[in-house]
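Schema walk-through. Below, the input block comes first and the output block second. Nothing else is stored per chain. Lengths vary across the set, and this one has 232 residues.
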Amino acid sequence: MKLFLLLLFPFTALAEKKRPNIVFFFTDDHAPHAIGAYNGWLKSVNPTPEIDKLADDGMLFENSFCTNSICGPSRAVIMSGKHSHKNGFMNNGNSFDWNQQIFPKILRAAGYHTALYGKSHLKGKPQGFDSWAVLPGQGDYYNPAMITPKGRKIMNGYCTDIVTDMAIDFIKESKELGKPFMLMCQHKAPHRTWMPALRHLHLYDDITIPEPKTALRPIRRAHPSPAPGNGN
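--- output ---
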């Protein structure tokens, strides 16, 4: 709940002042070692200058924890601000109850223009958004189908580009409306299967990608195997 207290404070206690726009970026399975701001060992191969700039100009979480690390449940916690046993989404086989209170509904009721684009992984039709287009399940990288308020539609192009373009168009629309906005831009990349945009297919042909220090570390059992013949 602390997350929502931080988000909601600007437009409840400071309702008379200009309300900040909120952009929530979500990249699926994006490990810290692939982000320069976290001193990732891949930063020399795959630099992330824009993400690093956000970290330099803002706040970097170096000791944060999630209440549920599974994909769908983690998203349900973020959306609802409640633990999994409270929001009803315990594992990826569940369906999210969109009728419950979630922070986009609160923002929308407070006058925000709201949108969700990309991977949802919560099933059902999103609520609390003026505009939304989500992938069915994990979705596809190339020419993905998107579920919209008007039904399923095939989008031509690369998924990351499509979601980004929708996000940019939404920001422009919000500016024309003169309303503060909350945008959830949720990319499926870099989740497997790893399928880059066609323009990036040969990006690393001449580059040797280093192995992590743990690549050849032997696997240790959490508990020793029972000795043979001891009846266990």
